[in-house]
Amino acid sequence: MIEIGKARLTIEDFLAVVRHGESVGIAAEAIEAMEASEQWVAAIMDDMRDGKDVAAIYSINTGFGSLAGRQAFDSVEDASELSRRLIISNASGVGKHLDEEVVRGSMLVRAASLTRGHSAVRSVVPETLLQMLDKRVFPAVPEFGSLGASGDLIPLAHLAIVMTRPAGHDEPLDSGEAYVDGKLVDGITAMEAAGIERIVLGPKEGLALANGTSFSAAQAALALADAENLLETAQITAAMSIEALMGFGDAFIPQIHEARGHAGQIEVAARIRGLLAGSEFIDGSEDTDPVRQPPQDAYSLRCTPQVLGPVKDTLKFVRGIVETEINAATDNPLIFPDLPDSRALKAVSGGNFHAEYVGFASDFLSIAVTEIGSIAERRLFRLDDGTLNRGLPDMLIASEKVGLDCGYMLPQYLAAALVSDCKTLAHPDSVDSIPTCANQEDHVSMANNAGRHARTIVANIENVIGIELLMAAQALELRLQASGKDQSALSPASRAVLELVRSHKSADGRTINHITQDTVLYPRVRAAVDLVHSGAVVAAVNVISN
Question: In order of start, what are the domains of the chain with their CATH numbers?
Fold first, then answer.
């Protein structure tokens, strides 16, 4: 079991829960930390019950946003009702429902944030979120609505409305929506099916649930995890293409990359060298002179370390931001009971809900991953072009009658369309802002939009690298045929991946074999993309590397 509120969550912890169903608990020290802020709010409520004069405290006994401080409520019931009305009013999103893993990720991040101890919520609030994760309650959350400040209010409200209820009559039509066994039902039905009691919120707890960066952070975390795997896979397929095109080894010798000094570039060059080691088709190395002249390839081959190296460094930077954010307290106000006695107001209003960090991270990731696809698509073009592929047949098909078969002509079209889509999506969302809430919220991050776009870009480029996997495999076999050599002439890494591809079944149940005439390609493309997304390509190479 993974415990939150003790050690920091890592991306690996996040994935273990979100994708693989690992159970989550709350550390005892986190429960203790939560009690201090909860008790401070409880003392305010006691004063209100006793008829004492209590000043307006944002989100506890007064309204939100531009309505803050207009009026201090004089009853505890109003303070609790404030939490309820916030949730039902904010649940106003539109669009298709987010993937289950995004919703699960957001639930985990929200629970982790609340256990930091600054949100003044009872332990039952994060505990209910964790029960929902464990029982796989899947709230239906529309994709549009968040501005990334004040946090992800609308999507979080769609989550909170399923797990909470009013103090009085519980109306199914006002309980949100969730999926049970693939069927969309109301929140009451979903929670009853899971055997989880919906909770009546207390003062402050409504905003603690709805105000935070949880959806933006979850989108970014999922995009990052897939991007890291994608980058590792792209280095493998790039090496396969370079080998099939009889590339020059000079571009990857360590001295070149050490002379520049960037860590990512040095690491990618070393990886490419390792992947190409043992190949009879690479011309030149650190120890041997190249035979052909001039010993240089087109940029899409030669500059692989200079392009994927910056991607690697960018993803490391993004990981630092995202791992910090999934452990952060991000609602407002935050409660600090240990402030000096000279300050009676322990509720501190700030702006941790502002998701600029996450917006930047998702935008940087989008730009970097688009470049993975952009350079890969150029390799696909070279593989297809008989004037550029160093003697391979046009469109990678040795057709009996030239022109009768299209071969791999159209997958390159598909890659071009996907990369073009990414170039549009990679426009940074974080540079946009539209003021809201009577200009109180006059600068927002649009981080959730950035996260949605980042995930789309990663999925697009997974398709591009899946296409390269198919085409490079075909090209390597054609190279062997042209040279009269057997597979022992290939690098061990290429042989391992080629075996993986050829032993794998496509989406229609047929094996992904070498084609000698046109066949239906979309089942093969889908299967190749699955190999990329699942990490199977990286695993196949790692087996021989270890």
Answer: 2-212 (1.10.275.10), 220-545 (1.20.200.10)
